[in-house]
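User: I'm writing a tutorial on reading structure tokens. Could you give me a worked example: one chain, its sequence, then its tokens, then a sentence or two explaining what the tokens reveal?
Assistant: Sure. Here is the example chain.
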Amino acid sequence: MWNGSSRMSSKIGPQLVFLVFVAMATRTAGKPPNIVFIVADDLGWNDIGFHNPDIISPNVDTLASEGVILNHAYVQPLCSPSRAAFMSGYYPYRVGLQHLVILPQQAVCLPRNLTLLPQHLKTLGYATHMVGKWHLGFCSWNCTPTSRGFDSFLGYYNAQEDYYVRTFEGFYDFRDNETLSVKQNGTYSTFVFQQRVSQIIQSHDTNTPLFLYLPLQSVHEPLEVPKPYYDMYPHIKDKDRRTFSGMVTAMDDVIGNLTSFLKQRGMYNDTLFFFTADNGGWTQFAGNNYPLRGGKFTLWEGGTRAVAFAHGVGLDKVKGTTHDGMMHAVDWLPTIVAAAGGEIKDKDIDGMSMWDAIRTGSASPRSEFIYNLDDKFFPAEGHAGIRQGDYKLLVGFPGLYSGWYPPANMTLGWSDIEILVNPKSWDDKPRLYNLKDDPTEHNDLADKMPDLVNKLKDRMAEYKNKYVQPNFPAYDPNSNPEKYGGAWTPGWC
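And here are its predicted structure tokens:
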């Protein structure tokens, strides 16, 4: 991938060269960077080229290798909780969204009293656009993206949709701002999103900084991809894994085209990219996190340690490096706001700005975080965990997918099936791991280090002083899409 740089002609005199560089510096200093925040859905640790050479993702790999790979960036084990953390800077357990995900029939959304990331950026003069998956509630129009700080929105409200016909659970779910949109039916959604990205960039006033939030549908199930991408992986014998791998490459092409659109408008060199997965890969649907343990739904590293990187303006001094500092999903909001030249005034949020640490290669200000706190039992999802320094403590059920799954072994193992049938087979015994020495979580140290177990349990109890009960109500019959012409539609709560 071309890096956007250009060579000056040798005929240009040194004085003119100096004036050009002064002008460029003045322009950069006077205007905040354009910011593109990309979220890949259900992308596992082993699902990207710079971790796994079997995956074809040259555009993402180049951005990562020429930027800063964030090697210890953590997220929640599921979609809605991570997105709540990205947008609000609060741990999900503090806003009632720590349990499973927001279901389409539930009268729930990210609390409306919170100031979200795009709202912060609008106060800094940004144009704000969203393309992709919301999944933070839609029962009221006031819960939807264009009421939460985005100037425009193209995408869907729910957890997943068919990539071609835009349906979820048999009902339509695709919006252009607030309007139901059916004109793109039959076109693979990844390319529909790409077209909107092109339109946003082409029509953007370059005197105004741009914030583009791009939470892509890729690579969440259903497993669907155009045949040319499937055909790029003839060596993969498992059909699902082959389809999934093609989905990653289709996503990579969209990101490559995004960089081309920015270059064509002369915006690329003023743009800062942030990239993260929202949780680990879902092993039942061909996602893979090997050699990390577990996957989506779990508090194991495979469910919570995300593929992530930063690239672009402001990172010249640290290009091509890996940052090993600790970062959590709640940190994205203050980090992005700081990169935009702002500061979060709300000192109650859980997030910390990582911008200075990333751009200078210095130590992370974070030394601990909460994986989750959830007292509402469900036999597939992790419940409670904390990391402090190199040590990680899990208490209670860690989640359904608790094994190690190479790409050729993506289905449930016998131990997982026993957990599903008899979830109480996991007792409340704490489990302790040293992630520096044992990043794949093979060696439980709890019996050898009881004092540290008690210390971390006490610390977790302190966090629980701000615990909010999960907002996970029964289905509301007013949500029925049949009342709205067969489409998931806001306005019933």
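What the tokens reveal: Residues 1-28 have pLDDT under 50 and may be disordered. The longest helix spans residues 239-264.
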